TrEMBL record:
Compartments reported by the entry: Cell envelope
Domain Periplasmic binding protein: 64-320
Highest taxon, organism lineage: Bacteria
Main location: other
Name by which UniProt lists this protein: Substrate-binding domain-containing protein
Signal peptide per UniProt: 1-35
TM helices/strands, residue ranges: none
This protein's UniProt keywords: Signal
InterPro entries per UniProt: Peripla_BP_I (IPR028082), SBP_2_dom (IPR025997)
Entry's family note: Belongs to the bacterial solute-binding protein 2 family.
Chain residue ranges for the region called Disordered: 36-56
Length: 356
C-alpha cells in the first residue's frame, strides 16, 4: 500500500528543530574559549556571561546518580558505557551508576535509593517515561536536579533538563538523503523497515521520513515493522524482499536490527537498491566504508545522550552554563542533531560510534 502523509506544520517544525538541534549539539561539545571571547559576547551591557573555558575546570564536588534500561541492545549499551567513561574525566563528580534494568519497579526503586542517599542530581533514561514520572517528580520536590534522557516524562516539571535525540529529524534526514539520491525520479520505489510500531519514537521516525519524501514527490511503497532486534530484522526483511521484486531505496530505522536486515539481503542475493541505516553503529559505518554492499548511509541517533545528561547535571549543580551561549543557565531542553553519515564523512563519526 502506498503511503503519503504530508504535514507542512510538522515539516516546518522539523527543519526548525534540526537547526536548533545542531546548535545545541555544537554547544555541548564546544564549551571552551577565551575569557576575552566571553567579554566580547557581553558587548558592553550588564548581562552576566558564563566564563568561557571554565566548564571543564574542577568545581564543587557533586554526586550524580545514573539509571538506564538494560544494555541488551548495542545503542543502549553505548549509553551506559559513555557515562562510565566520564568517571575518570571529572574528579569533582561522584558518579553512581545503577545496574541497567527493564523492570520499571526496579528502576523506580533505584531512583528512590538515590533520593534516600541524598544525591545532588539524578540522570535518568527511563524504561518507561510515563511510569517513571511520579518518582522523578518526587526527586525534584526533594531538591534533587533531575535530567531526563531520551524517553520523556509525562510532566515537564519532573526534570530540570531534558536531553533528546531527534526521532522525527532522523526520518527527515533519511528522506532527504533518498530524495537527493533519487535525483528527480518520482517513480523510485521506496521501502521502509521500522522499529516497534507502538512506540512514539517509531511513529515519529516514519512521519519524518514520509514528510521528507513528499517534498520530492516520493512516498513509501512498502513498509513493515520489526522489533529493534537482529532476529526480527532478518525475518521482516526476508518477508519484505519476497513481497517486493524491485526496490530502489530501503530505510531501516535501527542499525542493530540492521544486522539481521543485511543478512536477509545477502541471503536473497539482492543488490539493486540503496539502503540507509539508523542510529549510527560502528558496524554500519564499516559497511559504508567498505562500499561494496547496499548500505550507503546511516542516520545518527546519538548514544552520547546519557553522558551529555551527566555533563549538563554537573553544570547545573556547579552554577555554570553552556559557555558559548549568552544565556546564563543551562537550557531546559537540548535536542541533538540527526546527521547523515556517508562514505564522504564517515571518518568524522566512526570513532564515537557504538558496536551493534
Amino acid at each position: 500500500m502506498r503511503l503519503r502523509r504530508t504535514s507542512i506544520t510538522r515539516r516546518s517544525r522539523a527543519m526548525t528543530g534540526l537547526v536548533a538541534g545542531a546548535v545545541a549539539a555544537l554547544t555541548l561539545t564546544a564549551c571552551t574559549g577565551s575569557a576575552q571571547d566571553a567579554e566580547n559576547e557581553n558587548n558592553g551591557d550588564d548581562t552576566p556571561v558564563a566564563a568561557a573555558g571554565s566548564n571543564d575546570e574542577a568545581g564543587d564536588s557533586v554526586t550524580i546518580g545514573f539509571s538506564a534500561p538494560a544494555a541488551d541492545h548495542g545503542w543502549m549499551a553505548a549509553i551506559t558505557n559513555n557515562v562510565k567513561a566520564l568517571e575518570d574525566e571529572y574528579p569533582d563528580v561522584d558518579l553512581r551508576i545503577a545496574e541497567g534494568t527493564n523492570d520499571v519497579n526496579l528502576q523506580i526503586s533505584q531512583v528512590e535509593t538515590f533520593i534516600n542517599d541524598g544525591v545532588d542530581a539524578i540522570v535518568l533514561l527511563p524504561f518507561d517515561g510515563a511510569a517513571m514520572t511520579p518518582i522523578a517528580l518526587k526527586a525534584m520536590e526533594a531538591g534533587i536536579v533531575v535530567v531526563n534522557v531520551d524517553r520523556e516524562f509525562d510532566d515537564p516539571n519532573a526534570a530540570r533538563v531534558t536531553v533528546l535525540g531527534d526521532n522525527y529529524g532522523m526520518g527527515v534526514s533519511a528522506g532527504q538523503y533518498v530524495c537527493e539520491q533519487a535525483d528527480g525520479n518520482e517513480d523510485a520505489i521506496v521501502a521502509e523497515i521500522a522499529g516497534i510500531d507502538s512506540l512514539p519514537l517509531t511513529q515519529d521516525r516514519s512521519q519524518g521520513f514520509a514528510d521528507a519524501l513528499a517534498e520530492c514527490g516520493l512516498d513509501v511503497d512498502a513498509r513493515q515493522a520489526a522489533e529493534f532486534t537482529v532476529e526480527s530484522g532478518e525475518e521482516v526483511a526476508a518477508n519484505l524482499l519476497q513481497a517486493e521484486p524491485k526496490i530502489d531505496f530501503l530505510w531501516n530505522h535501527d542499525d542493530d536490527q540492521g544486522v539481521g536486515v543485511l543478512a536477509a539481503i545477502e541471503n536473497a542475493g539482492r543488490d539493486e537498491f540503496v539502503m540507509v541505516g539508523g542510529a549510527g553503529s560502528a558496524n554500519a559505518m564499516r559497511e559504508i566504508q567498505d562500499g561494496s554492499g547496499v548500505l550507503k548511509a546511516t542516520v545518527i541517533y546519538p548514544s552520547t545522550q546519557g553522558a551529555d545528561g551527566v555533563k549538563l547535571a554537573r553544570l547545573v549543580l556547579q552554577g555554570k552554563a553552556m559557555s558559548d551561549l549568552v544565556e546564563v543557565e543551562v537550557p531546559r531542553t537540548v535536542q541533538l542533531y540527526a546527521p547523515v553519515v556517508t562514505s564522504e564523512n564517515v571518518d568524522q563519526y566512526i570513532d564515537s560510534a557504538f558496536e551493534s
